[in-house]
Amino acid sequence: MKIGIFDSGYGGLTILSKIRDRLPQYDYIYLGDNARTPYGTRSFEVVYQYTLECVKRLFSMECRLVILACNTASAKALRTIQQTDLPHMREGLRVLGVIRPTVEAIGSLTRTRVVGLLATDGTIQSQSYPMETEKLFPDIKVIGQACPMWVPLIENNEHHSAGADYFVRKYTDALFAKDSRIDTIILGCTHYPLLIEKIRRYAPQEVNIVTQGEIVAESLADYLRRHTEIETSCTKEGTVRFFTTENAEKFQSSASIFLNAPITAEHIAAL
Ligand code: DGL
Known about the structure:
The chain is α/β, with parallel strands linked by helices.
């Protein structure tokens, strides 16, 4: 069995690369639903439907464990898939998200107990981060700011442009205008590490900026340690295959920028 990594587009590559640094021995299948990205502006029902289709697709391709390397899908689809869909599928299939491990990590990072969240509109609207945080750290306040232009900038490879500076500054300023006590920012969208240099430029200097790759990789390592029945069923040849619902050549040329290495991708239709 391989480990499936899913995102609406290229963003999950930031998670995949950290997972492969931490757990290079396993075999992975990456699926980007680039044909239907972005998810961040879509309704609950649509994100759920698209995510479920892609998860089923990964299950049909030798994956037994799928990581939703997408906050929007984790916020809007994970719970329903785990509670409503998985019980009707074959035994032993698992889906994990990225929000819970991120929230677990912030408790030790903030001193002021005021944390900023930069994410898609869908993730902000879902209130998933404040709700998860309330369960684990009731003394931490999460202030959210939706950044609807950031994913399109990244998906169109415009994130290094001067136009990107305008939108990075706009949403970063809007976040700090809501509460100047914020000492930690969560980049709550797997695309956003691509903008980290610009975010650092416009955020106050002393602020911690939390990206999710290493956190999710560590949490997966811990999960596999605790679930030996899944760990022993994972093949260990260190391979990765990339699939996209868009054109494979287009995915290859953009993905190689994200990963700093050439890759080969294959086109696939969502189920
Ligand atoms: N990378 C996805 C996330 O973490 C988002 C993107 C989208 O809007 O498609 O939320």
